[in-house]
Amino acid sequence: MSDLARVETSRVDATQVVRVTGELDLSNAHAVVGAVGHGVPEHVTLVVLDLAGTTYLDSAAIASLFRLAQRLRDRRQELRLVVPREAPTRAVVELTRLSQVVTVDESAADLPQASRAYAALPSLEAVVSQRRGEAAGEDPRQDGGPVPGDG
Amino acid sequence: MTAGPAAAGTSPSASAPGAGTLAAAAVDETPALAAVRRVAVALAIGLAYYLGARVGLRLSLVGNDVTPLWPPTGIAVAGLLVFGRSYWPAVAVAALAVNVPLSPSPLAAAVIAVGNTLAPVVAVTLLRRVGFRRQLDRQRDAIAIVFLGALGSMLVSASIGSAVLLASGSIPASQLATAWVVWWTGDAMGVLSVAPFLLCIPLFREQRSWPRRQWLEAGAVLLLTTALVTAAALMRLPVLFLSLPVLGWAAWRLQLRGAAPAALLATTVTTWTAVAGIGPFAGRDVLEKMVLLQAFNACIALTSFFLAALVSERMQATADLADAAAHLERRVEERTQQLSALNARLVQEIQERSQAQELLSHEEARAQHEHDVAETLQRSLLPGRLPDLPGIALAARYVPATTDLRIGGDWYDVVPLPGGLVGLAVGDVAGHGLPAAATMVQVRTALRAYALQDPSPPAVLRGVHQLVARLPAPEMVTLVYLLLDPVSRRLRWSNAGHPPAVVVRSGTSMRLTGAVAPPIGVTPDGSFTEAELVLPPEATLLLYTDGLVERRGASVLEGIERLGREASEALGASGASGASGVQPDDGLEGLCDHLLHTFLEEGHVEDDVALLALRLAPSVEGELDVRLPAEARNLVQVRSALRRWLHEVGTSEQQADEVLVACGEACANVVQHAYSATTATGDLLVEARVLEDTIDLRVRDEGQWRPATDRGGGWGLQLMRALMDEVEVEHTAAGTTVSLRRRVDLVSRPEPPPSPQPPTGPASEPRE
Among residues B31, B226, B374, B390, which one has the fewest Cβ atoms lying within 10 Å of its Cβ? Predict the structure, then answer.
């Protein structure tokens, strides 16, 4: 299940950004989204779920996202989604009216001021690499993100 | 008699055992002292001789000069035996002194004295010659002193003395025989009676000293002997013979030291009795007295000495026997100890050996155990079952090394990735045993995670590079990672020092030699390039570790070329091309078996071997037919197959995504609801066809759905209806069929699809 999707979490002040890469379907949605919800500390006020790298979402994943939104709202924490307009998952998010319950941004740049710092952050991997003084001057993401079906 | 103690008293304190003279022992004395000693000894011998003669004269039977017991001869023999023949002048002087007053003329006295001196010298010479021991503890010593020392040698003195008496006119010729006999027996008896007594005196110093009990016994013997011979002298009854048992007793119990004094005592007293003419000798003439006396004296001497010698000899024999027995016993004991020590050492050696053996087998067991653990680890981490990838045939083999711990870090992996992509990896962690296997585990796990995060080959290898660099004990890892898009058949790869993958078609093969970097863990630089290739239709991709192609005496390159040759020949022979179907085996299993059989020796695998074969199913001609177990984890496979099919029939990307979602919902419904009433999971079937510009999908199951009210949700159907033109759900006893239709804008696609970019570097080297 975890083979299908990967979760990366970073936090800036009271904003927690969770990036999900891969596919979410019946086999893993419950576990992955559940883990996202459980990994949010009390002081976080905004959870940004970045689905830009998510290539497939099914109704089971949508159901999990509804539950996540409800759970966070109960704890007075806001959930926002990042789903690019051209993303394959965009249609599902809109058809299920998830976008009416949760704010959906088209990119990280659309995030409010508090969370905009995230967009400027290098990836976690790059931070680690630079701290260790390895691969100096090399952008570890030079080969781009996940490769879509036919490029 | 009085001469005895005197002679003994003057004897040196030093003693010489055996036949050696006592004087000879005094070698460490100063010459002056030695001279003084010699003079003293000579004086003592002479004095003893003279006194002995005075006593002997008192016991004469014939006239005043022939006695039946002549002690001086015994004294002379004993003295010369003990102190050495060199003292003969002392004897000669004493003999002259004794004989001068007795002899008719000084000349006669001198001649007699010569005879008296010559006799003991001859006796001692003869005794020395036969190896006489003055301890008198052997029969031969007893015989020697009787026959050589006494009877034989005294012929000299008797003959000379008798002749002198005759010549000087002291006796008439008629008395010559008698005189000769008396002289001879007297001298002989002197030797027999006195010499043993004198010889026994040094023994009290030389031999084991007597305990009080033996002193008492000796005293009793002497007392009893005296009493008996005295009684015999005083009574008319001939009881002299009663003294024989007493002497026998003395000889038996005390040997020479008891017998000799008793014999001397008996002989002296009895001789005195004879001289006095009392007791058994009363009223007898001289001849009778002589015969009786000498017979008795001979009996006494012979009995005592022979018996003493016999007993001594026997005791010596017993002692020797005891010694021998003791020696034997000691030897046996020593030998037993040696043997038992040997035995103990042997036992210890055996124990040590068995301990070592145990240790060894323990060690072997441990090594075997480690081997087993490593192998189990290896096997458990290799994909137990290759993923079901519709449209992709896969076969893999892992053969652990058979020799000791050569099992190592070989692995292969097939990772289904988002978007229908497939990650393929084959690698080899250097080293063997558990450490290599453990590193392999980390690398393999990390590689899966990196591939999900960013499936591009250089990114994946960079990730592995960073991981390996951070390991506590960085290992060298060779690894080739390939990313396959089954839809476009585009193959991208990066290689870190691993033997190149081989692409095989019937009759041809090529090595994917591009994008090679040094093995991971060798250089700090972690930059990797990528190369790519569009996999020809029906081509078979072979990934392997060096264990398969590395052979002694042949280069790896030769091995790889041979692999391509063997594989292409096998494929040509099996006629795999032309097979159709979405999920073909196409003989990949057989190909793997064939290659292992060809390249590996039976029962002897030097190094681990991992082998992975992959082939894309031939292009679908308009229809998709997938059947998989209705499990959530298989949903991605259905999507992957459908995505490829949609691509091949020319559906646009966006429409394909929408159809994928609709179909995925239908499939998820099957997984969730179709078989919930039964324990066994049935199959999920997906069929797709394209009719002109309409995609016709059917998602079927062979189970029974629960009533709709229990199902909840509802987004699934909502999505299907929103994304498709037509949605029909038909529940029957045989199962449920969901039919989905959608008009799409089909674009025509050339076959095979063109490679989006040319291979970087000398990627492919087609053979033949």
Answer: B31
The reply to whether residue B415 touches residue A129, judged by beta carbons under 8 angstroms, is: no
Q: Please, which contacts does B274-283 make with residues 24 or more away whose CB atoms are closer than 8 Å?
A: B274/B61, B274/B68, B275/B58, B275/B59, B275/B60, B275/B61, B275/B68, B276/B233, B278/B233, B278/B234, B279/B232, B279/B233, B279/B234, B279/B235, B279/B236, B279/B240, B280/B232, B280/B233, B280/B236, B280/B238, B280/B240, B282/B236
3-state secondary structure of A22: strand
Tell me if A39 is assigned to some domain.
yes
Average pLDDT over residues B747-764: 45
Residue A149 lies in a domain: no
Query: Out of A25, A55, A149, whose CB is closest to B487?
Result: A149
Per-residue pLDDT tens over the stretch B78-114 = 999 989 889 999 999 999 888 888 777 888 888 989 9
Q: Tell me the residue ranges of DSSP E strands in B486-595.
A: 490-496, 501-505, 508-512, 516-517, 531-534, 540-544
> Between chains, do A26 and B635 touch, taking CB under 8 Å as contact?
yes
Residue A141 has pLDDT above 50, yes or no: no
Q: Which domains does chain B have, with CATH numbers?
A: 1-205 (1.10.1760), 382-619 (3.60.40.10), 623-743 (3.30.565.10)
Which domain CATH number covers A9?
3.30.750.24
Residue B755, pLDDT > 70, answer no
How far is Cα B242 from Cα B238, in angstroms, rounded to an integer? 9
User: Chain B residue with minimal CA distance to A145?
Assistant: B454
The model's confidence at residue B64, banded by pLDDT at 50, 70 and 90, is low
Question: Number of residue pairs across A and B with CB atoms under 8 Å?
Answer: 134
Does the beta carbon of A124 lie under 8 angstroms from any beta carbon of chain B? no
Nearest CA in chain A to B447: A3
**Does some domain include residue A145?**
no
B741: which strand partners? Answer: B696, B726
Highest mean pLDDT among A74-78, B367-371, B416-420: A74-78
What are the chain A neighbours of B663 within 8 Å (beta carbons)? none
Look at residue B573 and tell me whether its pLDDT is greater than 80: no
- Cα(B59)–Cα(B176) distance, integer angstroms: 20
Of B144 and B391, more confident? B144
Q: In this predicted structure, what is the pLDDT of residue B325?
A: 84
Question: With an 8 Å Cβ cutoff, is A123 touching chain B?
Answer: no
**DSSP SS3 for A5:** strand
Quick one: closest CA in A to B648, which residue? A150
Q: Cβ of A147 and B421 within 8 Å?
A: yes
The C-alpha angle with vertex B203 and arms to B198 and B205, in degrees rounded to 5, equals: 120
Q: Quick one: pLDDT band at residue A127, thresholds 50, 70, 90?
A: very low
B487 compared with B501, residue with greater pLDDT: B501
The minimal CB distance from B719 to the residues A92, A129, A151 is found for: A92
The answer to whether B493 touches B530, Cβ cutoff 8 Å, is yes
pLDDT in tens, B475-485: 788 999 999 98
Q: Cβ–Cβ of B664/A147 closer than 8 Å?
A: no
Note whether A55 contacts B: Cβ–Cβ < 8 A: yes
Q: What is the pLDDT of residue B748?
A: 62
Whether residue A29 is contained in a domain is answered as yes
What per-residue confidence (pLDDT) applies to B402?
Answer: 66
Contacts (Cβ under 8 Å, ≥6 apart) of B17: B206
Domain count across chain A? 1
Nearest to B419 among A60, A143, A146 (CB): A146
Give the residue numbers spanning the domain of A11.
5-131
Contact A145 B530 (CB under 8 A): no
More reliable by pLDDT, B581 or B68: B68
Contacts of A148 in chain B (CB under 8 A): 419, 653
Average pLDDT across chain B, whole number:
81
- Give me the interface pTM, i.e. the ipTM: 0.73
